[in-house]
Structure formats: structure tokens, C-alpha cells
Amino acid sequence: MNTIETSVYWIRAPHHSDMFSEGYIGVARKAEKRWKYGHQWAFKQNRHDNPILVNAVNKYGWDNLVKEVVLVSDEEYCYDIESKLRPSENIGWNINIGGTRPPVTKPRGPDYVSPLKGVPRPTPWLVGREKPMSKEFFSKGGKAGKGRKQTPEQIAKRVASRRATLLAQGRTV
Fold this sequence. Notes:
single chain; GIY-YIG endonuclease; three-stranded antiparallel beta sheet; 5 helices; 33% helix
């Protein structure tokens, strides 16, 4: 059994009074840190996983929500209480069943090789095209021949600058 102090917290609107059916119930080892760097940061970055909680924050404002620690105990007991407060999906602002830990990402290690390495993948803008691009398209360059033409002096200046940069970096010219 894990004896690290953990807390059950409740994020709610000021008018909410029923913990069993309103607001968001969560478990964290450091609730204040979870609120700031888990929930609040994710809202600002538009990266939060819970759309119902996002809607509540948009409606009431993060600073107007009441955030309180309900219980401090060991981790197993906190998850047990959360499972009793949120025994099924979509209760209050929670979208998942309570009492389960979030998934843990396992490190892949230094010898990990992507299963897609070496597998040819189609170029996105060519998918579904019946015929390949014409040779004329590729001969015009990336911007298809558009833009201002450079004078020979401008080209010579650009080439000289690039050579000087490579020489300063110790790379071959």
C-alpha cells in the first residue's frame, strides 16, 4: 500500500452544493500544483482532455470556480473515494469513471526504432492524384517560377555570403 499523502479535490461553480452530482472530482498528490500546471495550463493552451470541464471554465472563468481539497489520505483510499463519488461516466463535469489512474507513458529506451522507419509513405498532397506531376512543374521550382528575378550581382553576393558562412563554421565550401 502506498503511503504518500494524496488528496481528493472538487472543482465546482459557486452555486454547486452536491459533490455526488456536480462539478469535477479529481485525485492528486499535490492538488494546488495539479490545478495550476495540470488544469489551468491546459485551458490556456487549449489542450485539456475534458470538453465538459473546458466549457465550465469558459462559462464561469477559472478564477471564479471554487477549488477545494475534500480529503487527504493515502493514494489507494483517495482513489476508492473518487470511485464512490463518480461510479459511472458523465457525472458532473467528469467524463470518465472515478477511481482509475491516468495512463502512464512508458519510456521507449535508447534502442527503440519506430515501426514506420524505412516504410515508404505517400506524399500528402499527391494522395489520390491519378497522374503524377508534370516535369514542367518541378523545373519551375517551389514557387512555380513566381517572384522577382535576381540580378547576377545579387546572386554573386548571396553565393559569397554563403561560402563565407561555411568557411567560418569550418565546413567545406
